[in-house]
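To whoever is on call:

I kicked off a structure prediction for a single chain this morning and the downstream step that reads the tokens threw a length-mismatch warning. I double-checked the sequence; it's 224 residues and nothing unusual in it as far as I can see. Pasting both halves so you can look.
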Amino acid sequence: MDAELPDVAAGRRFYGELFGWSFEEAYGSSVWALLNGDRVASLAPKSDGRMPTVWTVSFAADDAAALGRRITAAGGQMVMAPFPVGDLGTAALAADPEGAVFGLWQAGRHPGFGRRHEPGTFVWAELYTRDTATANAFYGGLFHEALFGDGSEPDFGRAAVTDVFPAEMPSHFLAHFRVTDLDDALGAVQRLGGRVQAPPLETSYGRVAVVTDNQGASFALLQR
């Protein structure tokens, strides 16, 4: 999980207060977000001001180049070809057939984040798409365990973008972070300069609200 932000220092203040994260230097100008000493996310400066301010959901890859070839063969595209991130690992950026963007991470010295499903950490990624059949086939072929389970707690779901949503809304992933008290967390988001995009609603996986941070990156808060 990583956020690309115009101002990493402002991101540190926002997320440090909201989730209780501390921070340490990572690669280049990026920082690791830590919870009780374990890495749970990263914040990075946007390399191009024209790019959106976003949270990116990444999938682990044993071989990012080989998985990239499978993605293009299945109708997706590589937005950014695999590239080394020092000795930490290899990263890539891809899009599915409907245009939803996601990352790939081939671990080197950084195996991935040490905590999830706990308050203040990543708990769920929801894919919003207009063509659910295509999404099922695409992700089911690439990431079978992420969709259908390997015996561990699931991380990933898929929802249809219906007429309730604006027509211009593209397919996208929405990262969810777990909180203990959703109402308290929403109050903190607004106090810290963020805003509530969608008020709390009940879902099959918990009580959820969609928010943006103080720089416009969207994410969801989930109380289970």
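Update from on-call: the warning came from a stale cache, not from the record. Cleared it. Sanity check on the structure: The two ends are 20 Å apart (CA to CA).
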